[in-house]
Amino acid sequence: MAITSLLNLGGNSVYTPPKEIKPTDSNIPARKTSDVASAEQSVRNTGIFYLPGLMNVSKTGNEVISQFMEQVELQKVGRTSDFARWDSQREMLLNVDSMFATEDARGSQDTISRFFDNWKTLSTNPQDESTRQAVLSSSEAVVEMLRGQRDMLKATSNALGEAVQESLTSLNDKLQALVDVNERLASPDNSGMRSELIRERNEIVHAISEKLDIDTNLNTREQMKVSTRSGFTLVDATSAYTLQLSEPSISSRLTPASTFDGNVSFSGTSSREVTLEITQGGAVGTGEVRFRASLDGKRSWLSDAEGNDLQFTVEANGTAPSVQNLDVTFNANAGMLAAGDTFSIVPKQHVTGFTPQGRVNLTPQSFFDGSDNELRITGGQIAGFMQLRDNKLGTYSEKLDALASTIITAVNKFHAQGASTVSQSEVTASNTVVNPDVPLAGNGSGLATNNNISAGKMTLIVSNTETGKPAPTTAYGIIDFSSVAPYSRDFDPSVHSLNNVRDALNSSLGQFGSATVEGNALKITATENHSFSFGEDTSGLFAALGMNTFFAGTTASNMEVHAGLRENPAAINAGVVNNAGAVVAENGDIAKSIGALKDKPFTFATPGEATKKESARDYYSALSVQAKDDAAKALYKTQFNEALLLDLSRQNATIHGSNLDAEISEMTRFQHSYKAAAKLIMSAEDMMQAIAGMPN
After folding, report:
1. Which of 65, 296, 465, 550 has the highest Cβ tally under 10 A?
2. Domain limits of the chain?
3. Locate the Flagellar hook-associated protein FlgK helical domain: which residues (predicted)?
């Protein structure tokens, strides 16, 4: 071989950069190399120093790699929050869907249909004992279904509250751990542990992003600051601001014109936050104060059928109409309220953040259009759990209650005007009032069903149990209110209280019966050898009070068949009382009217949704479909975000990753090649020296 060839071969080997060095598997992360790019990525951005055996990564290449790595990390943190939000809902929504799917909501033999069908059968043969038992059995099935599902939703909501508490505890620990890492990174004593601390910090940040959505940034000392996407500071370099699960509360924001120095209180629970805004100011106690209400942070207001804002009047005693099942009371005679004063009610456990400036409500909130309130938590397990509790399970609970209330009201309206062959000598109302001196239609009466009553006539016929004939003074059985103010014959809920009803009954029944108010409930008792039968009631009062009714309760939570009917199916009212005050055994008019409710369209109004007019079983079917759709959406969102998160993880591994064994093997091979090239050069040098030393 010529000397020139040997020199060229060695020189080319030395000056050739190791551009062929590649990791065997770029998805296997290299440990302790978080600041080093993969070989393949580095080569694309390298500058070559033409000094034998040296290669250098240029400043520009490092910057590109670093910025790309940072963007991937940021996307991974955000996607982790989104994945955790939907993954936390997925399994529970599938369980809820399974609960509703156990009922064939549209079949002709579903639970609700069987209930009404059995009433229709009873109307054709009201004396048949087995048919009455079938009515009772199907009624219990409806109660068991609705009440069981409502209880299951409540239990799930309670479990979600506990899960949120656990997530908050873990989150607060992670926030404090991040503060500790920041302090160690800032210490000069730990400069040799920088890579270890950065990896630890990244792990903590990812753990935080699993709990809620966050933004991060570094200060000049490489200390990380963390905040929610909405801007609430969680970690400010060396300080952590913890989050807590707070109890229901109410807060106020008064205008400069307001002199109100009292307080506003509420009772009841709801899955929605309620904002009250004063529209007509004045002193509490005058009956002049009015307000409107919003369930979505003042983006919209509760309205009537014409689209006008509903106006709620505060009565002289400070009570207000029920809003979203919440009873609100204003402290009377405490300054003047002004238009624009607002009161925000959070009637549930909620997430709050504490800062030196005060407490901030961070509870996740969804608007009626499906969008999230960007000023609150929107991602992570905490958002998932609370959105599931309030937006999903809360809506299901509202609809179950609306369905149960509709069935109870419709059935009781007819049953309260019916009669059976079983005589009644004493009846006590199942629904009570708060104040028996307040007109029943008023806010202060406390009658939960006061929206079901109107002005009209009530009929109660007292009969002699021995002769079966009506008592002589109550031939027509109409309850006369002429003896109580305002001395009109008919009942008027806007002026008549429960005590007024008691007095009118005593005046009408005379010596054959009496009425009392015990425990804020109306009780009617016939005298010895007498019984009474309920007749036509155009006011709906007896049904609203829960007297002579089929169902007790007002919602799915407390719905039940009256105990007396469960014990004696013969007491089920299938017929009516004739003009002579006697029950016609073969009459089935009441049962027929209840059976016809199967296909009757009812009006259902759910906040944020268009008012629906459909049958009870169709409404339940729509609820079942909604649960299925929500479960399918949660599953899709989980899988979608999981796929994106996996892709980001692969990118992250590609940037950081290399197979150490493969790298060492490749480096060893090139090292051997370099040594071989060096030996060629040394051999050439020896040959040159030998030639140079040869005598001429």
Report:
1. 550
2. 249-393
3. 95-285, 369-420
